[in-house]
Amino acid sequence: MLRSLVGSEMCIRDRSMIQAADVGVGIVGKEGMQASLASDFSILQFSYVVRLVQWHGRNAYRRSACLSQFIFHRGLIISVIQAVFSALFYFSAIPIYNGWLMVGYSTWYTMLPVFSLVLDVDVKDEIALQYPELYRALQKGRLLNMKTFLLWCLQSVYQGGVIMLMSIVVFEQSFLNIVAITFTALVLTELIMVAIEIHTWHWLMLLSQLLSAVLYLVSVVVLKSYFDFTYVSTWAFVLKVALVTLVSCFPVTLAKYLKRRCKPPVYSKLSD
């Protein structure tokens, strides 16, 4: 009966119904610890439910939505690069990146900045508790739905296609260094995209960005079988990578900026 009234998702605090609930909240009381031990979340006072839902719950949903879609974007963009590369060379089964580059892309170069998004907050806790209306966007699924998923897919296809096509068509004379150009632009694009999604910077976010950049620079020097350091250290390489990264990131950044200006979210109005 409760499910038919409140919808598919329920938050229950009674011990007898915790096992059947989607989210169980137990309160530690004089009657014992049974409800608290059987619950998903345990609190000391009933008044803590407000902070649990409107602050911690809201942040958890926002961060999970952003992180899951960004991880998908990170995997799809490199898949698009490989698909375009194979299509340009008669669908040959030759990987453009292999070995340590693939391992590094999934771990050292992009993992820390992407997972640092779990530290992001859009409003202060006082504002989130004062305005329960902020939770309405989450209830309507505006942060994670088919529309947002398709937008991230479109962004990945565009950026992956631009990185590969520009590197081959525009810089055809640098074909022997195509791996260094495209992979550097790819890593920089991911770092910039993470920075764009952040609302409030945390020192660990800055550290993750800096550490990832340093690790990549060290890899360029160490992994001589993948990078020609003589070419990588030239201004021609730097300018080509900067141009590819600019074309890849600028339209996406501009679109996000215009969307926030023309249709600002509720939290931005409260922050101002």
Give a nutshell description of this structure:
With 272 residues, this protein is mainly alpha-helical.
Overview of this structure, please?
- The chain has 272 residues and is mainly α.
- The protein is 66% helix and 4% strand.
- The chain has 14 helices and three strands.
- It has helices at residues 2-6, 15-18, 34-38, 48-88, 100-106, 111-115, 125-130, 136-139, 146-170, 178-197, 203-222, 229-232, 235-262, 266-271, and strands spanning 11-12, 23-27, 41-43.
- The protein has a three-stranded parallel β-sheet with strand order 1-2-3.
- Helix 10 runs parallel beside helix 13 (235-262).
- The two termini are 42 Å apart.
Number of helices: 14
Q: What portion of residues belong to β-strands?
A: under 5%
- What is the average per-residue confidence, as pLDDT, rounded to a whole number? 84
Coarse shape? elongated
Counted beta strands: 3
How far apart, in Å, are the first and last alpha carbons?
A: 42 Å
H-E string: HEHEHEHHHHHHHHHHH
> Strand order, biggest sheet?
1-2-3
Look at the helices and sheets and give the structural class. Answer: mainly alpha
Radius of gyration (CA) equals 23 Å
Work out the helicity level: 55-70%
Low-confidence stretches at least 5 residues in length (pLDDT < 50)? Answer: none
User: Which sheet architecture does the biggest sheet show?
Assistant: 3 strands, parallel
